[in-house]
């Protein structure tokens, strides 16, 4: 049985990729798309519900999963609206504040709600592996992270880089709020032993590169994930759609639960 899907920002970079993959798959049915009226021309050809406001589609789409890769406030609004109708929601938006995430956690008590700053299966496998590597290497190894994205990306560092840093900090029993160094400039002095540097580069059309460095005595280990296309994230999001449609409300789900943590 196909899973009905509503896609937010259907003409955006991720939205258009999701629309194409959903249309090409028998596992999903494109129930509706949401886009600003001034850029929605042509969406009527998709053969689904088209609106400029999610509220116009939800009452006519029981059980459809909302997929949102737009912007923090828009994604939060989507979750609020879906909580009134009971529709599940999958969010891949980055740059959410702690306050916004706290509200998502509250909304997740009322609807099946999934959020991940990176929907890539490979990145989430990396999240699982990094603590093991950190424990094997030990505290003699300094840890740094770089991330590269296209020049349109608005938030920095990326949500994925933040997640990777948090995982490494937790593995060492550190508080990332205390040890995080987000870029360096000027006469900053010697690098403290208890620090994790996170550095953002922007340019061109890079989909997303993340590298974790372990600098040790006499050697350096680099672990890199490179996304070659947005299909990588879109396919992960659609895997989340199928999974969340079978879940109950109660917690803010993530890739960890989907992959069987």
What does this structure look like?
By secondary structure, this protein is α/β, with parallel strands linked by helices. It has two domains: 3-119 and 230-258, NAD(P)-binding Rossmann-like Domain (Rossmann fold, 3-Layer(aba) Sandwich); 121-227, Dihydrodipicolinate Reductase, domain 2 (2-Layer Sandwich), CATH 3.30.360. 33% of the residues lie in helices and 24% in strands. The protein is built from eight helices and twelve strands. It has helices at residues 13-23, 72-85, 98-107, 121-137, 159-171, 176-179, 231-244, 255-258; strands at 3-8, 28-34, 49-51, 65-68, 89-91, 113-115, 142-149, 180-181, 196-202, 208-216, 219-227, 252-253. Strands 3-2-1-4-5-6-12 form a seven-stranded parallel beta sheet, with helices on both faces. A five-stranded mixed beta sheet has the order 8-9-7-10-11. The relative contact order is 0.16. The mean pLDDT is 95.
At a glance:
With 261 residues, this protein is of the alpha/beta class.
Proportion of residues in extended strands: 15-25%
Number of helices: 8
* Main sheet: strands, sense, barrel: 7 strands, parallel
Distance between the termini: 27 Å
Shape: elongated
* Percent in helix: 25-40%
Rg value: 20 Å
The average pLDDT is: 95
Low-confidence stretches: none
The SSE order reads: EHEEEHEHEHEHHEEEEHEH
CATH topology of the largest domain: Rossmann fold
Find the CATH superfamily of the largest domain. NAD(P)-binding Rossmann-like Domain
Class by SSE composition: alpha/beta
Using the 3D structure, state the CATH architecture of the largest domain: 3-Layer(aba) Sandwich
Spatial order of the strands in the main sheet?
3-2-1-4-5-6-12
What is the name of the CATH class of the largest domain? Alpha Beta
Query: What's the number of domains?
Result: 2
- What is the total tally of β strands? 12
């Amino acid at each position: 049985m196909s899973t009905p899907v509503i896609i937010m920002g259907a003409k955006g970079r991720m939205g258009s990729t999701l629309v194409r993959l959903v249309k090409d798959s028998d596992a999903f049915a494109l129930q509706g798309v949401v886009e600003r009226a001034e850029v929605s021309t042509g969406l009527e050809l998709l053969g689904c519900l088209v609106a400029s406001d999610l509220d116009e589609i939800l009452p006519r789409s029981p059980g459809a999963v909302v997929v949102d890769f737009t912007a923090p406030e828009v994604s939060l609004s989507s979750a609020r609206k879906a909580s009134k109708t009971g529709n599940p929601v999958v969010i891949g938006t980055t740059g959410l504040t702690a306050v916004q995430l706290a509200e998502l956690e509250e909304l997740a008590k009322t609807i099946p709600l999934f959020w991940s700053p990176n929907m890539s299966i490979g990145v989430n496998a990396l999240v699982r592996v990094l603590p093991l590597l950190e424990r094997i290497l030990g505290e003699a190894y300094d840890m740094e992270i770089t991330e590269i994205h296209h020049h349109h990306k608005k938030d920095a560092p990326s949500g994925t880089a933040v997640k990777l840093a948090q995982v490494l900090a937790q593995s060492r029993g550190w508080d990332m709020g205390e040890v995080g160094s987000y870029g360096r400039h000027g006469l900053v002095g010697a690098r403290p032993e208890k620090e994790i540097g996170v550095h953002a580069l922007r340019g061109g059309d890079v989909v997303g590169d993340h590298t974790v460095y372990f600098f040790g005595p006499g050697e350096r280990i680099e672990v890199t994930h490179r996304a070659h296309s947005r299909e990588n994230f879109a396919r992960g999001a659609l895997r989340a759609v199928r999974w969340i449609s079978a879940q109950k409300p109660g917690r803010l789900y993530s890739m960890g639960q989907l992959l069987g943590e």
